[in-house]
Every structure is written in structure tokens, then in C-alpha cells.
TrEMBL record:
Its cofactor is [4Fe-4S] cluster. Residues 26-136 form the Dihydroprymidine dehydrogenase domain. Residues 151-457 form the FAD/NAD(P)-binding domain. GO terms for molecular function: 4 iron, 4 sulfur cluster binding; metal ion binding; oxidoreductase activity. Pfam families: Fer4_20, Pyr_redox_2. It comes from the Bacteria. This is Glutamate synthase (NADPH) small subunit. It comes from Wenxinia saemankumensis. The keyword DNA damage does not apply.
Length: 480
């Protein structure tokens, strides 16, 4: 009888892929984790306990069949592992890199809760699909039957691309419209290369293009083409624009106070070799500057670690709660600290010191945590008389994002929104108040995770197939 390849968590310790030394990774924008070797991936996969109720799968937004593809990896059956992974996730190699596994699958691993250290699910997921690309298992696809129906997708981020993949596999004609010159949304311009190298996204976009998805880029809906024109051209429309409007601070219009997305986009464009005037002029370049980033989410972590790589003389994060109550990934905080970022917990900006038109410092108040709010998180309170000034040449506002007013921006009547400005859409299907119009991702949820946008895109694609009359059979074909 063959030896059981699994349940080795007692005898095999948890091990992550090697992380490049902090002094080396500060000098470039390459990904910080090296690849697992095949033997190491198999070894770490073999630690899975193959639970009867896999909490890792339950807490994954895509409900990926994690125990099965771990078992295939442990047995050296990598192609089957990839096929299982791909069956529920349009972009497993992307999720393996940027999902906050410590809050999702790995954070709910049974063996982690028993004290043995979680299975390194994200690293194995990344390894499986990177191997699939390397071996040529990932190829452009052709649907079994072409259909006459067409769907227009507004937004080439993860939600829109996931839906495009599913719809195209079912034979639907798909056109994706996007405001940027490259497809990928925040995966291209909002997430730095040290977390997600851009060729990883580009090869997926290229696969979709070779499979028949048409991309119309540099296209601003409401300016270059009207929403009504898109709706008139297609049998159904999917809105997947994401949320790009930055939350602002009062009196923050001085020179040197910039928005996180502007800062990250400029940096990512430079990595493509683009001409970026705001970067070259120093406006969106941290080199030689004292940098303060305001915020505690994953976008703030991206800004902090980008500023370090650009050559800032100091980089400080201001967050109004403590470390245990921050929304960003603890793994990202640890990486940032290793790279030289300083964290000022329980600190909130009161205002700015400005010399003429240029910021020279941030006025900060110490905070304490008071009673919990409606969500259960303790509310920060100002400590009177505990103010101080932090010098800053560049202040980056990473306070989160809000939806744009799409009905007004696009001149659309009847598209209902919530009191938060997000599009009102039916759960799971993404159906909006307009017939044949669907919406997914952050424009429905508010700022959220890439993995949730992928889930929404896949679910809504199935609903659109139903709407188009393709039925359950075509939806099943698209999911294969």
C-alpha cells in the first residue's frame, strides 16, 4: 500500500518560500518571495490535515477546493492540482500573491488553530499556477460554440476580467471598455510590483485577448462613448469600474500632499517605462524626502514600501488605532518594518504645517481607544494636550476610496445607488435596477479585495448567461 502523503503537520514544520533580504529588496520592485521548489511545495502541501470540514475552503471567497489541490501537489500531480485550482479561480497565480491569506484561508486553517502552524496555502497556489504557465498548460481557449449575443463590460479590473473569461468560454462575444491604456485596473496601476509583478497580469490579459475578448482602452465612458451607446450595442452590460475617488482630509491641498492612488500609479507607470511628468518633476517621487503616509490599510502599506524603494530618507505611517486593530495585513506590516518603515500607532493628523505653498510637517495628536462602535471596533479618542509635529516633505493620503457618482457622470437615468454611492445590485447575480445591466466588485461592495471582485465577476457571468438564454448548460461549460 502506498504511503499516505498527507497529515504530516506533526513531523514537518511550516516553511514559507525564502524571502529576499530587506536590504536587497529595498533596492528594486521585484517580488520579495522566491518560488518554492517542487520538493518543497510537495513537502509543505503534505502538512494539510485533509479536514472533513475544511475551514480554509469555507473562508475563501471563491470556495477554492484547497485540500484537493494540496493533496495533488503533495503527490506530484501538479497538472491536476492546477486544473482543480483553475476550476474555481480565474486568476489563482494573482490570488496566491496578493490575497491576505492570514485573514482568509490560512487564518482559518485547522492545524494553525491547533498550534502546528498553518499550511502555506498562498505560496503553494502561486507555485502551482506559475508552474502551469512555465509548462505551457495555460493556453488561449476557444469556446465549443460561438454565440451571437454580446456583452459589454465597463472596467478591466479583476471583476470585469473574471466575467469576461467566463462569458467568452461560453461563446459570448465580449468587449471590455476601460479608461486606462492597459487592462488590469488596480492590479496594474494600484498594486506595486514587489507584491504583483506586472507581467503576471499582462499574460492573463493577453490570454483573454487571444481567446477572443476585445479590449477598448483609453475609453472614458461618458466622454468617449456614452453609457447608452454601450447599452444599445450589447445584449447585456456589466459595470465593474471599481472605486477610485479618494477620501480627503480638510485643508490638504498644499504642495507635497498627494493621494495614494496618484502616487502608486506614477510609480507603476515608471516601471513600464512610461513618461510620467509628475514623477520626473519630483511631485510624486519620494526620493530624498521625509515621507508620512496617513492610513492603515493595504494601500497605505503599498505606499510606505514604495516610498522606501524610491529612496526616501524616512518613511512613517500614521494610524489612529493600534496594531491589533488595523485593517491591513499583519504580514505586510512585518515586511514594511523589515524594510525600514516606522509605525506611529494611535496617532491622527490634526493639520499641516505649510511653508508658503509647500507642506513641511504634519500636526499630530496622540489617541487612545475608547468604547467599541457598532461594528465592535474600539473608537479612537484624542488625548488632549498630546500634540506634536512630524517633519514631512511628502504626505500621502491613504484613507480609502469612495465610488464616483456614476449616474451623474454617465448621464444615466434609473441606475439606483445606495446611500454610500455604490451601485445597488442584487446579491450573487449583480442585477441592477436597469434591465440587462449588472454590476460587480468594489462599485457594489465598496473598496474590498481582488478575490471578492473575482468571485462577483464569476457569479454575475453565470447570471448574465441565464439572462441571455444560454441556460445552465452553457454556464457549466464556462466553469470547466
Amino acid at each position: 500500500m502506498a504511503k499516505e502523503p498527507m497529515l504530516k503537520f506533526v513531523s514537518v514544520s511550516r516553511d514559507m518560500p525564502e524571502k529576499r533580504a530587506a536590504d536587497l529588496r529595498r533596492a528594486d520592485f521585484d517580488e520579495i518571495y522566491r518560488e518554492f521548489a517542487e520538493a518543497k511545495a510537495a513537502e509543505q502541501s503534505s502538512r494539510c490535515s485533509q479536514c472533513g470540514v475544511p475551514y480554509c475552503q469555507t473562508h475563501c471567497p471563491l470556495h477554492n477546493n484547497i485540500p484537493d489541490w494540496l493533496r495533488m501537489t503533495a503527490a506530484g500531480r501538479l497538472r491536476e492540482a492546477y486544473e482543480i485550482s483553475q476550476s474555481t479561480n480565474t486568476f489563482p497565480e494573482i490570488c496566491g500573491r496578493i490575497c491576505p491569506q492570514d485573514r482568509l484561508c490560512e487564518g482559518n486553517c485547522v492545524i494553525e488553530q491547533s498550534g502546528h502552524g498553518t499550511v502555506t496555502i498562498g505560496a503553494v497556489e502561486k507555485y502551482i499556477t506559475d508552474t502551469a504557465w512555465e509548462k505551457g498548460w495555460v493556453q488561449p481557449f476557444r469556446p465549443a460554440e460561438e454565440r451571437a449575443e454580446s456583452v459589454g463590460i465597463i472596467g478591466a479590473g479583476p471583476g470585469g476580467l473574471a466575467a469576461a473569461d467566463m462569458l467568452r468560454r461560453a461563446g459570448v462575444q465580449v468587449i471590455v471598455y476601460d479608461r486606462y491604456d492597459r487592462a488590469g485596473g488596480l492590479m496594474v496601476y494600484g498594486i506595486p510590483g514587489f507584491k504583483l509583478e506586472k507581467d503576471v497580469v499582462e499574460r492573463r490579459v493577453d490570454q483573454l485577448a487571444q481567446s477572443g475578448v476585445e479590449f477598448v482602452l483609453n475609453c472614458n465612458v461618458g466622454e468617449d462613448i456614452s453609457f447608452d451607446a454601450i447599452r444599445g450595442k450589447h445584449d447585456a452590460v456589466l459595470i465593474a469600474t471599481g472605486v477610485y475617488k479618494s477620501r480627503e482630509l480638510p485643508e490638504s491641498d498644499a504642495g507635497g500632499i498627494v493621494r495614494a492612488l496618484d502616487f502608486l500609479t506614477a510609480s507603476n507607470r515608471k516601471s513600464f517605462g512610461d513618461e510620467v511628468e509628475e514623477f520626473d518633476s519630483g511631485e510624486l517621487n519620494a526620493a530624498g524626502k521625509k515621507v508620512v503616509v496617513i492610513g492603515g490599510g493595504d494601500t497605505a502599506m503599498d505606499c510606505l514600501r514604495t516610498a522606501i524603494r524610491q529612496g526616501a530618507t524616512s518613511v512613517t505611517c500614521l494610524y489612529r488605532r493600534d496594531r491589533d486593530n488595523m485593517p491591513g495585513s499583519q504580514r505586510e506590516v512585518a515586511n514594511a518594518e523589515e524594510e525600514g518603515v516606522e509605525f506611529s500607532w494611535l496617532s491622527a493628523p490634526l493639520g499641516f504645517e505649510v511653508d508658503g505653498t509647500q507642506v513641511r510637517g504634519v500636526e499630530i495628536s496622540r489617541m487612545r481607544l475608547g468604547q467599541p462602535d457598532a461594528t465592535g471596533r474600539r473608537m479612537p479618542e484624542i488625548i488632549e494636550g498630546a500634540e506634536y509635529l512630524a517633519e514631512a516633505d511628502l504626505v500621502i493620503k491613504a484613507l480609502g476610496f469612495e465610488p464616483e457618482d456614476l449616474p451623474k457622470l454617465w448621464g444615466v437615468d434609473g441606475l439606483e445607488v445606495t446611500r454610500w454611492g455604490t451601485i445597488r445590485a442584487e446579491a450573487v447575480t449583480g442585477r441592477t435596477s436597469l434591465d440587462g445591466v449588472y454590476a460587480v466588485g468594489d462599485i457594489v461592495r465598496g473598496a474590498s479585495l481582488v478575490v471578492w471582485a473575482i468571485r462577483d465577476g464569476r457569479d454575475s457571468a453565470a447570471a448574465i448567461l441565464d439572462y441571455l438564454g444560454t441556460g445552465a448548460e452553457a454556464a457549466a461549460v464556462a466553469a470547466e
